[in-house]
Amino acid sequence: MRSHKFKAIAPQHSGGFTLVEVLVAISVMALMALMAWRGLDGMLRTQSSLQSRSDEVRTLQAGLAQWQTDLDQLAELPGTPSWDWDGQVLRLTRRSAQAPQTSADAQASVRVVAWTWRRDPGRPGGGDWQRWQSPLLTQRLDWQNAWRLAQQWGQTPSEASRAGQVQIHPLAGWQLFVHRGGSWTNPLSSDAVTQGNNPAANASGNSPDGVRLVLSLPPGPSGAGDVTLDWVRPTLSGAPS
């Protein structure tokens, strides 16, 4: 009787993954994708915040530079006030860069500009810092009309007066101080328009020796708190302190 021997055959393993391994791999990939998305989202948010802050800072810097330029270009003309502050709007008569700045051509080169803080509950801080300017003025009658229009714009703006308006920056408020007679004072006080025994020397229509601007910034990309900028009349021999 013959005996038969059977040879054991070793099990063969395939080169694929099991279902458990596939599920683990998918879970790891999903977790990595989620982490990558959160990182990318955070980077985009940071970039957007930095861009917004940069835009706000540039806008504020441009407004402050325009403020200084307007004061630097004040036009001191006979019988024409270069400065007027009524507690709400500051009106200035300034030379224009498009025309020569000689005394003979001064009348033809002026503009009327105005600055104000306008209340607006819908804006950060409750208001906006705004600037207005007239077209180039060549006749005294045109200047008188623009001077009145600037005051109207600062108090009760109309559609016509808003044509020259530019919105500068949101503000919670602003303050002005002038330097006359050797000290800083409120521009509406009597000390701001008289000096010693010569009241006419510093009449309200003449530019002061210096102007201190204080802007109250609301919380925002450009920061919060007070920003102070001092301007000194370029022809002043000694800087105010």
What does this structure look like?
The chain has helices spanning 19-72, 140-155, and strands at residues 83-85, 89-95, 110-119, 127-133, 165-170, 173-180, 183-185, 210-217, 225-232. The protein has one domain (48-232). The termini are far apart. β3 (110-119) and β4 form a beta hairpin. It has a five-stranded antiparallel beta sheet, sandwiched between helices. The model is unreliable at 100-107 and 190-204 (pLDDT under 50). It is of the alpha+beta class.
Helix and strand arrangement:
Elements: H1 19-72, E1 83-85, E2 89-95, E3 110-119, E4 127-133, H2 140-155, E5 165-170, E6 173-180, E7 183-185, E8 210-217, E9 225-232
Antiparallel strand pairs: 1-2, 2-3, 3-4, 4-5, 6-7, 6-8, 8-9
Mean pLDDT: 78
The spatial strand order of the largest sheet comes to 1-2-3-4-5
The percent range for helix content is 25-40%
What is the count of distinct domains?
1
String of helices and strands: HEEEEHEEEEE
> Tell me, what's the shape?
elongated
What composes the largest sheet?
Answer: 5 strands, antiparallel
Number of E strands = 9
| Structural class by SSE content | alpha+beta
Entry keywords:
about 30% helix; five-stranded antiparallel sheet; 9 strands; about 240 residues; elongated; alpha+beta; four-stranded antiparallel sheet
